[in-house]
Amino acid sequence: MIVWVSSFPRSGNTFLRIVLNRLYGVRTSVVYDVDGVAQRLGADLVGFTERPAPIEAMRESCELHFVKTHRQRDDQIDEMDKAICLVRDGRDALVSWARQSSETDATRFETELHAMITRRSTVGTGSWGRNVLSWLLPEAPHRVVLRYEELVLRPRAANERVVQTLVPQLGPLADAQIPSFTELKQSDDRFFRRGLTNTHRDELPAELHQLFWAQSDNVAAMQLLGYGTKARDSHRT
User: Please, which residues have CB within 8 angstroms of residue 173's CB and are 6 or more apart in sequence?
Assistant: First the structure.
């Protein structure tokens, strides 16, 4: 059986994988050929494991497999596959992803961010709004929404909620220790950057903020998640 650990990039997926590993002893593979995050941070910190078989064989296996993906829900994901759908305010996720993509050249931040906001691909990661909507619609009890703010504020309770819903046969380890954000920053303070909500308020330029709201998929996803609407957005840059 597969449980997808799905999210748009920079929505807290790595922290979720770390907590799953520490709290349940669960190691996650990835849908990709290479796990760049595990290569950067270390397989043991992330809780990475190689995929033992093709996706279809993992799905049909009696064993439980957690698989990370940043892709939109597509034909590779069976309609009945279980999934943790990790979501974050799209503006925060996009700012964080653009910062990471311009780590070696900060002058490219706005260029990267503009490209991410306006991407139109129907395959792979796609745009933030399209990605989120692909996982959340139609609603299904076997696709459970986990919000970034819930994960960072109450990581143990947040994980226990989604795991109990999807795979109640798993129980937390008695001696589980979840690392703090401060501890994670010590391992790589550029990857674990701020760990906050509403980071767009002091990082997202006004014109790119308007561009974000000009994308219809973003509007639909923001409204669905209750993160606000353009009309009452209090952003100031």
Answer: 22, 23, 24, 25
Show Cβ contacts of residue 57 under 8 Å, excluding neighbours closer than 6 positions. none
Output the furthest CA–CA distance in the chain (Å, rounded).
52
Q: Give the separation between CA 162 and CA 200, rounded to whole angstroms.
A: 27
User: Strand, helix or coil at 105?
Assistant: coil
Specify the pTM. Answer: 0.94
Decide the pairing of beta strands 28-30 and 65-69.
Answer: parallel
Alpha carbon distance 36, 2 (integer Å) = 21
pLDDT at 237 over 50: no
Contacts of 175 (CB under 8 A, 6+ apart): none
**Stated length of the chain:** 237
CB 73, CB 126: distance < 8 Å: no
What are the pLDDT digits (tens) for 143-199? Answer: 999 999 999 999 999 999 999 999 999 999 999 999 999 999 999 999 999 888 899
